[in-house]
Amino acid sequence: MGAPPVGTLFFKWSSTLHTSQTEKNKKFAYSLMDSVGRLLDNENWIKKLVISILKVTFGPYKVTSIVSSVLSRNVNCLQLQNDDLKIFDTRVTFPSWIPTSHSLTKLVLRLGFLLVVRDDILLPSLKKLQLSFVRLANEKPAQNLFNGCPVLEETTIYKCCWRFINNMWIGISNMLIRAHYYVI
C-alpha cells in the first residue's frame, strides 16, 4: 500500500474589478472560503493551507471556522491573509472546543482583527508564529498564545496593536522575536 497523498492548498484571489462589483467579489470570496472549509472537513491529506484574499473583507466567522478546521486536522502550516484591513476592530476567537493541535508547526495570521486567545490553547508543535495587523486586547490573550506554544522558536510581530499591553512575560528561553510595533 502506498503512502497517503500529501498536499498543499494555495488560494490567492485578487479583485481588480470596479467597485460596483464589490458585492459579487465578496460572494465569490465567501464561496471560496466555504469550499475550503468543506474540503478541510472531508479530507485529511492537506498539510499546508495558504489563503490570501486581496481587496475583499471576509468576516470573523469565516476566519474562526477555518482556524477551527485546521486545528482539528493534521495541517502543519496555516497562512491566512486578508489585505482589506478596514475591519481592524472585528473580533476573531480561537475556538474553545478544540484548544490543541499537535501537528501545526507554522501559523501566519495577517488579518486586521482583534484576536481572542483562550487560556487553554495548546499548540505544542508550533515553531514559527507570524502576526501582522492583529490586535490583542491586553496581556492575557498574548500570554495565553505564547505560553500555549512551548517549542516556539521564531516569532514575527508586524504592525500589531499593543495599545493596552504594558508588560508581558513569555517563558520560552530560546525564542527569537522580531517585532515592529504599531500602536493605533
- Ends distance: 56 Å
Segments where pLDDT lies below 50 for 5+ residues?
1-7, 11-19
- The CATH class assignment is Alpha Beta
Query: How large is the share of residues in beta strands?
Result: 25-35%
- List how many beta strands DSSP finds: 9
**Structural shape:** globular
| Strand order of the biggest β-sheet | 1-2-3-5-7-8-9
The CATH architecture classification is Alpha-Beta Horseshoe
- CA radius of gyration is 17 Å
Tally of domains:
1
Mean pLDDT: 71
Q: Helix share of residues?
A: 10-25%
Main beta-sheet strand count, sense and barrel state: 7 strands, parallel
Order of helices and strands: EHEHEEEEEHEE
Q: In terms of quaternary structure, what is this?
A: single chain
Annotation field: number of helices:
3
What is the SS-derived class?
A: alpha/beta
CATH topology: Leucine-rich repeat, LRR (right-handed beta-alpha superhelix)
What report would you give on this structure?
The chain is of the alpha/beta class and 184 residues long. It has one domain (7-182): Leucine-rich repeat, LRR (right-handed beta-alpha superhelix) (Alpha-Beta Horseshoe). It is built from 3 helices and 9 strands, in the order βαβαβββββαββ. It has a 7-stranded parallel sheet, with helices on one face. Strands 4-6 form a two-stranded parallel ribbon. α3 (139-147) links the parallel β7 and β8. It is globular and about 45 Å long. The N and C termini lie far apart (56 Å). Residues 1-7 and 11-19 have low confidence and may be disordered.
